[in-house]
Structure formats: structure tokens, C-alpha cells
Amino acid sequence: MVVIKSEIFDMSSADIFNPLLKSKNVIILGLLIIALHLYKVNADGENINEQYPSGGFTPRHGFGGDCEAEQKMLDPMVKYLQPNDIASGAYDFPGPEENLTLCTRPCKRNDARICYYKFHVDRFVTMGLPCRNCPNPVEQCARRHCIPADGYEKSIVVVDHMMPGPSIQVCEDDTIVVDVKNGMPGTSITIHWHGLTQTGTPHMDGVPMITQCPILEHQIFRYTFKPDNPGLFFWHSHSGLQKLDGFEGSMIVRQPESQQHYRDLYDYDLPSHIIFLQDWLHVTADEFYQGLKTRTLDQFPVTYLINGRARSKTFNGSDYSKTPFTVYKIRKDFSYLFHIISGTCLICPVRLQIENHLMTIVGTDGRDAQPKTVGSVTLGAGERLRVIINGKRNPRKYYFWIHAKPVGVCEGLRFGNPSVACTGQRDAQGVVELCYKDLRGDQLAPLGILDPPNEFKTQVIIGLGDYRYNFNIDEAYPLDGTIKMAFNAIGSFPMTNTVNGIAFVMPPAPLLTQYEDVPECLFCSSNNPFRRWRGIESCLHIFRVEYPSVVELILIDIEEPDHSEPRTNRVSHPWHTHGYDQYLIDQGLFETEDYGKELQNLLDKLERKEITPPDYPVLKDTWLVPSGGYVIIRIIANNPGFWFRRGHIALHHERGMAAVLKVGTTRDHPPPPDYFPKCSNYLETPDLD
């Protein structure tokens, strides 16, 4: 029997690496390869758990510098503590004894466990002291605490000195407990568990000033929750732009194999088979956000990372760095389940393709889907896919590249001009593209979703817009110090981002627990706008729906037309709603740029029931709304609480492309846990006598 083994390779030789870099049609995420070296094993396949040369991180069992009282408080949980290097490859084939304590295990009925994690968040650097002379030799890049990224030294924000951070992999009935300690002076944090609906536990959703207070420096916040369903998720910072600096990681919730409708399609589901995609800059996110005038003049990444590794131009721009790529091991003639996560933050959707291999999609975001085989997949920020990859029976070579093409507005700059709108067609190489509207879920939709009675249906229109301001600088930033509006700048012009023409303002206290502490003047109202300038209102934007009810959400892109650019070369907006999976009813492009007329035509078609949803619609929590297009989704509003909804392009979210969905009244909302932290404005009136 022949087995494929993963190694760290120096892939800098001209005959392998350089020709791929010269391609004008793709960016090599050479960041990631499937490399194949052969070695012998016995007929039973033993010894396939040989360690990577890259090894793994030693699990951390403490926050470091904790006082005795804190340690005593945490002691009862120590026996449930999970390793933080579960995705390193060291646990791909655990022994029977390890399965007794690991939450990453074959799932069985009536085997619920407590899965405890300790996250220490602090600032760190890529190519720092732990890397020593990485990449010369390349083995030093695998040292504990070394984060090589693309070989460029920069400041980052990470958990446990890992990027991506520790992978959480559990079974669907397990209880997840994560103690998050903030080790960054002068900085607050929270963590959002992207895709988990948090039914019954809205206080654990991780949105500062919506569901909880920010975690301040040296504080610990304990997140405790049960996953609602099996699927692919990820966690990330929900404070500022920390996610863009590396503060994120994967999460997989498995189920017993007997309940998987696609179990007979693959042989292995290994903890290390995660393709975690990040867009990468050579400046910090905060520096990028402010709008530099002479460098990084756009919203495009320098490169992409897969599992924290990549290559890019060296400091002097004369050559590519020699940092290692991420390498996966597979066995020929066997099938593997891979978990693809788009942890990106910027405006570029990415089309992934594996050299000489097809992918069979079996899951979208946190839900299962009926299998569909494609040659490439396009993901916006926050989207996830589970795919099955078959190892070649008689491979002609023993390494295969996984590479990508940025699409839409990003690709027009360097790599041609394909549309980001899905067509489902074959390209010149015969590769079929993924269209979510052509996928089917694995479960029949409830009748209320397929044909909701009008008296139980609420229709919400969400228009996503980017606005560029044209004025002189003194008007935007007056000399008297007045702040009229919050902007981020792209090169030399300021921008803001909105939902229905409103730039979202965060409250000074959490809506879920301290609603009465939020000043009335902050809430959006046609009679009392908090701030309005040049037609853009800035206020606390809340959509209120009854509990329970069926809610139809119409997401439309209302970006101001720029006739100097093709429609396919503009920004598409990924949109994520907390607290709910959503059923896809329809998606597409408008025929014209008269969006008011196009929207009315769409509403008329819905009223006449000319848009018929499939019986088995796709379920997702994150959608890529095409520029000049729409996505229609429905939810059953049965999860009361305040649920954040936002554009998943980091800069857009920070400047107002967000809103809150309030489901039910405050009486319907679950009570907070005991001793839950509080925070708000302090405006004590001084003694004026």
C-alpha cells in the first residue's frame, strides 16, 4: 500500500514555483499545496499517523502570570481542558486513550462532554524572535510560537501566539466553555462565534454593546454555550478591526456518522484538513483603516494566507519570500472531507480551485447540502463550505496546488474581468462554477417558509450602500474641530457605508441587558435623527419583528452607479445575520441601474408569487450580495433577542454598514446569567452650588 505523506518543502526551485507565479489568470495561493511523497506501510495502513516535520504547538494550560485566586477559580475546569493544537495533524489518528478525553473524536449518541478552552489574547509579531532564522533553514519556521505568515514582519493580534487561533472541534451535544483573557493593555475585545445561532444563550453571541460589555485589559470572560446543530463555523474578534490582524480561528461541530447523509462519499474527516483563508496586509488594520495617502491606496490585500502561511514579494520587491506553504497529506485513491473557511475581511471574493481535482460540496456554512460536484468555489468574507476531495488513483505527479482568483472589483485590476455574479457555466478549461441558487439543502423547508400567510409575514428591505463624499477638506474636517460625520478614507476621498442610507451607531450600553441605559436620542427616528449630513443619517438602527413570525429579508445592493466601471467590476457585499440560518428564496442581478424601479418589480413578483422557492432551499448565515443585484431570504423568527446584522467587509462594518434585528419584546428575551457584567456612560452631575 502506498500512502501520501505531508512535509515542509522548500518550493523555491525555478522548475516548480516560478512558472506558476507568471500566470496572469490566477493568484497562486501557493500558500497551500497538496504535496505527495510516497512511503511504504503495511496492508492495514498502520503508521499513517507519523508526525509532520512541522510538529505542533505544545498545549498551553494556563494564561501565564495568573494569581493564586484566579487559578483556584479555574481549577474545577482543568480536567476538561482541550489542547489548542488540535488542527496541527498531531491528533488526526488518536489512540483509544486520547479519545476518552478529547472532544475532537468520533461522535456517538449519549456521549455529551464538556469542552474547555483557555484563550489568551495579546499582541504579537510575524517573523518574530521565535522564528529565529526562518526560512533559512525552513525547519525553523515550524518552531513553537513562530508565525511566518508571508515572510513580512508586522504586528498582529492573536490567541495563544497562533494564527489562525486554536481550532475548536466538538460534537453536537457537547457544552463549549471558553475563558477569554485580554492581555492587551488599553484595548478591549470580544469573540463572536460566527454561524452559531445561540438559541437560548444570546448573551454569548459576543457583540460588544449589543449582547455584552467589552472585555477590558486583564479581564477574563467565560463564554458557555451548546451548538445548535452540526456544521462548519469559525470564531473571530468582534471589536474594531482585530480580525484583520489575525484574531480568528476555526470551529467544527460534528455529529454521529450514522446521521450524515453524505458519509458514504468520503473515507476520512481529519482535524487538520481545514483550509482557513485570510487576506493579508503589510500594515496594521488600524493604519490601513485611516486611509494612507501614499501607500495602500485601495482596499485590496497584499496576498492571501492559508492556515497562516503564504509568500509575497520580499522587502526590496526583487523576489518572493521563501516561507513555507501549508501542506496537507492524503492517500491516493481515498476521499477526504475538507473544511473551507473564508476568514477574509476585505472587498475581494475569492474563487478557489484545486489543481486537477474536483470538489463535491456537501455543506454550506453551518448546514448540510445535497452533494454537487464543481471545479471551483467562490467565497465572500464569512462564508464556509464543506467539500469532498478524491485522491487520484494514479497521479502523474505528487504535489497539487490550491490556488485562487480574486473576482469582481479585485480581478479587474490584474487578472482580467470576470463577473462576480454567478453563472453556473463552464469556463475555458471545462470547470463548473458554484451557484448557491442551484444547490439544494438536505431537508424540506417548513411550509411557513415556502408559502407564508401574509398575516404572519414581515417583509424587511435592506439596502447596502457605499457612499463617496465630494467636498473640500475644510468642509469635512472644519477648523473649529466640529465632527460632522465619521469617515474612512480610500486614498484621497472619504467614504461611509450604510444600510438603507443609515450609518449605524453603537449604543453606550448593551441592548440585551441594559436597554434602559441607552439614550433615546440615539435611536433612529424620522422625527429625531441623531445626526444627519448630506442625506446620510447616523443613528442606532433597529429592525423590530414579532416573535414568532416569518420574516422575509430582501438584500439589495444600492451602490451609487459609477458608469466609468463595468457593473461586474464593482464591490459585492457579504452580509451576515447573527442568531439565524436563512433559507434562500432567490438571488440574481437587476437588469438596469434604476434600483427603485427594479425593487418594485421584485416586490410585485413576490406579491404575485412568481418567485417560487425550491422545496429544499439552501440554508446559510452569510450571503454575498452581488453589486447591482439582490438576495431574497426568509427566517422563522423563533429566537428572541437583539441580533446584529452587518456587512462582513471589515472597513464597511466599522463605518456603518450594520443594523440590529430585535426579535420579540424584552419580556421574551432570556434573562442574563448571574453576575453578568454591566457597563454604560458615567454622567454624574457635579455639585453646582
Automatic annotation (TrEMBL):
CDD domains to which the protein is assigned, alphabetical: CuRO_1_tcLCC2_insect_like, CuRO_2_tcLCC_insect_like, CuRO_3_tcLLC2_insect_like
Coiled coil, from the record: none
One GO term of the biological process aspect: iron ion transport
GO-annotated molecular function: copper ion binding; oxidoreductase activity
Classification via InterPro entries: Cu-oxidase-like_N (IPR011707), Cu-oxidase_2nd (IPR001117), Cu-oxidase_C (IPR011706), Cu-oxidase_fam (IPR045087), Cupredoxin (IPR008972)
Segments forming domain Plastocyanin-like: 143-257, 273-403, 538-664
GO CC terms: plasma membrane
Similarity field: Belongs to the multicopper oxidase family.
Protein name: Uncharacterized protein
